[in-house]
């Protein structure tokens, strides 16, 4: 009988420690799942038609072979802007295109979100680069741009 008692006691102890280990694992995993869902933001559906954005004054730096232009853009819509694209087109004095570059936001721009646009335009011949134009596009329509002095 001693052998059966010892076997029953061993089984009870091993089962009890496994159950407490499982409870501990469940309790420690629960807060991380709750924290993860609390930190996720709601994604707004993309807007259809014209989108309104604000942009700051562009800042251009000449690095020799590249003209690097940066500015901030803020979504002023209640929905997200999918596929935001900015083209920087350079023209000569006669209006012929000389060079240009593009920026595309890989994620939808959420309502009130601010991003920094960085355009790296190759300098082919600086004497031919007379003026430039920024063209804003989105996947579901046009983009209306308003210039502002400062964005946070």
How many strand units? Answer: 8
H/E element order: HEEEEEEEE
CATH superfamily of the largest domain: Immunoglobulins
Please indicate the count of domains. Answer: 2
Classify the secondary structure makeup into a structural class: alpha+beta
Assembly classification: single chain
Over the alpha carbons, how many angstroms does the gyration radius reach? 29 Å
CATH class wording of the largest domain? Mainly Beta
Overall geometry: elongated
What's the architecture of the largest domain in CATH terms? Sandwich
Let me know the largest β-sheet. 8 strands, mixed
User: What portion of the residues fall into strands of 2 or more residues?
Assistant: 35-45%
- The termini sit apart by 79 Å
Question: Which spans have pLDDT < 50 for at least 5 consecutive residues?
Answer: 17-40
Brief synopsis:
Helix content is 25%, strand content 38%.
What does this structure look like?
The chain has 152 residues and is an alpha+beta fold. It has 2 domains: 1-40; 51-147, Immunoglobulin-like (Sandwich). Helix content is 25%, strand content 38%. It has one helix at 2-39, and strands at residues 51-55, 59-62, 66-75, 85-91, 97-104, 114-122, 131-138, 141-147. The chain is elongated, with a radius of gyration of 29 Å. Mean pLDDT is 81; it is low at 17-40.
